[in-house]
Design brief:
Number of strands: 10
Strand content: 15-25%
Distance between the termini: 13 Å
Number of domains: 1
CATH topology: TIM Barrel
CATH architecture: Alpha-Beta Barrel
Largest sheet: 8 strands, parallel, barrel
Bound molecules: glyceraldehyde-3-phosphate, 1,3-dihydroxyacetonephosphate, zinc ion
Oligomer: single chain
Amino acid sequence: MPLVAPHELFKKAYEGKYAIGGFNVNNMEILQGILLAAEQERSPVILQISAGARKYAGHDYIVKMVEAATAKTDVPVVLHLDHGADFKICKDVIDGGFTSVMIDGSHHPFEENIAVSKEVVEYAKPRGVWVEAELGMLKGIEEDVVAEEHVFTEPEEAVEFVEKTGANSLAVAIGTSHGAYKFKGSAVLDFDRLEKIQAALPGYPLVLHGASSVPQELVEKANKYGAKIDGTTGIPEDMLRKAATLGVVKINIDTDIRIAVTAAMREVMINDPREFDPRKFFGAARDAVKELVAHKMRNVLGSSGKI
Ligand code: G3H
Ligand code: 13P
Ligand code: ZN
């Protein structure tokens, strides 16, 4: 099946109160693991590519690999740009075959964010490409920009932003953050704020970034085999389920994939120090990604069986 734009998928997800995973792809095994999970779970899926991933693998490699992987699949697959920093990268990937882009102007002042997001919408819409924008700022690192504190999304500003930009969906800041160290104490998300944003923008699709749960069993497994990943916290799975009932149709997961890959590769290397066939390491990583993503689709996002 050719790549699809997510318009219909998100409409169904909004109505059905489930979310579709935006899973970050960096190499062949991660891509294969995600797609194997989507096929097993009969779930739509969003493959998302950051600027860093595009640089690491190369635009043509990524696109050709995704095309090869999806040519024979019967599940709907969206190819999405994660955290596009400016108009140029959004234009480049739209011209290069992506079906969805994120323009991340969240670090700019409000009016500048509106201007750059609108520019991308004007280029993408006539080409049938979906545009996700962001308002508010997540604590932590986003594409080399470090924010010391959250800047939560204001519902009234969200309405003005959506009206002025015409963006198809909006990533909101309600307390999630990127990476494996999300909370100092216990996990808190501002669901009141999310409800207010949903009420202010009825029927409008919202997006949650920084939504890895950082499963402790995977962290412990990685550490058992020599990693030193300490003090991690993620978003509890029940909070993600709840968000999916409040207008959030896309939930982004990258960190959990990274930890699953790290734990699986370390296990093989440590258990058999004489092994040096890379397929053993990368194959174990692919299996681990498949297992993780299938779990997300079935037990967290609610997207299993929705095609
Ligand atoms: O939002 C950030 C994603 O986890 C992508 O990370 O820019 O290191 O590929 P990256
Ligand atoms: P995590 O770091 O929580 O996996 O978030 C990923 C993300 O938001 C990618 O855009
Ligand atoms: Zn993100």
